[in-house]
Amino acid sequence: MLTAIIPKLPMRDKTATKAFYLQQLGFSEIADYGDYLLIKKDHIEIHFFAFAELDPTQNYGQIYLRTQHIDDFYQWLLEHNIPIHPNGHLETKPWGQQEFSLLDPDNNLLTFGQDASS
């Protein structure tokens, strides 16, 4: 029986990854195993593996995070000067989701979505 999915994303610099996720997005650290980092926020867990040679322009890491109160979260990010992806501002998509996107320091794309009828 499947119970959860936990994305694993590459990171070039653990200090930059921690600063972005912990200090800017409000995640907390579960564990740091040197080349492997585990973080969480609410019911979401993300793992990162060291990849010092990663070329961020060639990184296609992506995750989709379902959320509640997307308008409030989006506004909070704007108020805290967290850059929104230039093509990913909050909007309602044809598939019925309100979505917006961010890029982390390694160009991993984080898309946040909420059912538009919520």
> Which blocks of ≥5 consecutive residues have pLDDT under 50?
none
In angstroms, what separates the terminal alpha carbons? 29 Å
Overall helicity: 10-25%
Which oligomeric state applies? Answer: single chain
Principal-axes shape call: globular
Q: Would you report the number of β strands? A: 8
Note the main sheet.
Answer: 4 strands, mixed
Label the structural class.
alpha/beta
Q: Calculate Rg over CA atoms.
A: 14 Å
Helical stretch count?
A: 2
Q: SSE order, as H and E?
A: EHEEEEHEEE
Q: What is the average per-residue confidence, as pLDDT, rounded to a whole number?
A: 96
Give the strand content. Answer: 35-45%
Side-by-side strand order of the widest sheet: 1-4-3-2
What does this entry look like structurally?
By secondary structure, the protein is of the alpha/beta class. It contains 2 helices and 8 strands. The strands form 2 sheets. A 4-stranded mixed beta sheet has the order 1-4-3-2, with helices on one face. A 4-stranded mixed beta sheet has the order 5-8-7-6, with no helix packed on it. A hairpin with a 2-residue loop joins strand 3 (36-41) and strand 4 (44-50). The relative contact order is 0.21.
